[in-house]
Design a protein that fits this description.
By secondary structure, the chain is mainly alpha-helical. Helices cover 72% and strands 0% of the residues. It has helices at residues 3-19, 28-46, 51-55, 59-83, 87-101, 104-107. Helix 1 (3-19) packs across helix 4 (59-83) and helix 2 (28-46) packs antiparallel against helix 4.
C-alpha cells in the first residue's frame, strides 16, 4: 500500500467518524481497547483449529477472518491517525530494530525471543 493510499484511507475513516460524531469516542485509549477486542475476535476464528486447518479455511470462515482483519486494520489506522504516527515509517523503523535483535545467521529456525539468547 502506498503512503498516499494509506493517508486517503485514514482520511476516509476520519470522515466516517466525524459524520457520525464519533470522534468524541475515539481517544487513543478507547481505540486501543477496540483494537484489542477486534484482535480477540480474529483469534477466536482460529481457536481450536489445528495448524493445518488454520491454513486451509473454508470459504465462510475465510470471509469472517477477512472482515476481522479489516476491523483490526481500521482501528490501527484510527489510532495512528489520532496520535499522528506514520505507520509506514514506524514499520520500517521496527523492521530495522528487529534485524538488529534477530540477526538471520543467529536465529534462523529458532523461535526464541532475543532475550533468551546467550
Amino acid at each position: 500500500m502506498s503512503a498516499e493510499a494509506l493517508r486517503a484511507l485514514q482520511h476516509r475513516l476520519a470522515e466516517f467518524a466525524a459524520e457520525r460524531d464519533w470522534q468524541q469516542f475515539h481517544s487513543p485509549k478507547n481505540l486501543a481497547m477496540a483494537l484489542s477486542v477486534e484482535a480477540a475476535e480474529l483469534v477466536e476464528e482460529f481457536q481450536w483449529l489445528t495448524e493445518e486447518q488454520s491454513r486451509q479455511l473454508d470459504a465462510e470462515r475465510a470471509e469472517r477472518v477477512r472482515l476481522e482483519l479489516a476491523d483490526v486494520f481500521i482501528y490501527l489506522l484510527r489510532i495512528a491517525d489520532t496520535l499522528g504516527v506514520d505507520l509506514l515509517r514506524a514499520a520500517d523503523d521496527k523492521i530495522l530494530l528487529n534485524e538488529r535483535k534477530y540477526p538471520a545467521e543467529r536465529v534462523r529456525g529458532d523461535s526464541r525471543k532475543y532475550t533468551d539468547y546467550d
